[in-house]
């Protein structure tokens, strides 16, 4: 298996959805809303991807200003390729695209907490989420 990594290489909506379906992220993303998934991948300004020939096997999808904060919105690795270092490499390559003061910020699934802790992330309990459909102040 010769995995190649690419920065901001085009990823189609179908490839993105297929990867999410083949990883644990498909359960927590609106993969049946094609318009949402299309907007999600096409409006990301930093996408690092992993490929086994033409098959998308990993993605680190970020939204960033490149200087202060990079929100790593998705980190997904195809289930047959997990535990091979792809996720770690995706994050490392993401960091390489960012300025020296830029932080990686993500929301982890509970089962992934120990993974991120081992990589050097610190837990922050100050995250707040406003769900879609909730009006500010009500």
Descriptive account of the structure:
- This protein has four helices and five strands; from the N terminus they run E-H-H-E-E-E-H-E-H.
- It has 138 residues and is α+β, with helices and mostly antiparallel strands.
- The longest helix has 11 residues, at 86-96.
- It starts with a strand and ends in a 19-residue tail after the last helix.
Which key terms come to mind for this protein?
alpha+beta, 138 residues, Aminopeptidase, 25% strand, 26% helix
Termini gap: 52 Å
Q: Sheet with the most strands?
A: 5 strands, mixed
Q: In sequence order, what are the helices and strands, one letter per element? A: EHHEEEHEH
What is the CA-based Rg, rounded?
A: 15 Å
Question: Might you state the CATH topology name?
Answer: Aminopeptidase
Structural class: alpha+beta
User: Residue share in helices?
Assistant: 25-40%
Q: Quick one: CATH superfamily? A: Gcn5-related N-acetyltransferase (GNAT)
> In percent terms, what proportion of residues is strand?
15-25%
Helix count? 4
Number of domains: 1
CATH class placement: Alpha Beta
Strand order of the largest sheet: 1-2-3-4-5
Instruction: Based on the coordinates given, report the CATH architecture.
Output: 3-Layer(aba) Sandwich
> Mean pLDDT across all residues, rounded?
94
Low-confidence stretches: none
Query: What oligomeric assembly is this protein in?
Result: single chain
- The total strand number stands at 5
Q: What form results from the Cα inertia axes?
A: globular
């Amino acid at each position: 298996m010769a995995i190649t990594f690419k920065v901001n290489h085009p990823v189609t909506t179908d490839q993105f959805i297929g990867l999410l379906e083949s990883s644990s992220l498909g359960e927590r993303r609106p993969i049946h809303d094609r318009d949402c998934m299309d907007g999600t991948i096409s409006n990301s300004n930093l996408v690092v991807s992993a490929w086994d020939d033409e098959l998308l096997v990993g993605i680190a999808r970020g939204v960033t200003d490149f200087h202060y904060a990079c929100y790593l919105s998705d980190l997904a690795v195809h289930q047959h390729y997990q535990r091979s270092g792809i996720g770690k490499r995706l994050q490392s390559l993401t960091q390489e695209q960012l300025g020296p003061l830029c932080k990686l910020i993500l929301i982890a699934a509970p089962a992934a907490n120990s993974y991120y802790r081992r990589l050097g992330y610190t837990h922050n309990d100050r995250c707040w989420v406003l769900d879609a459909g909730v009006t500010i102040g009500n």
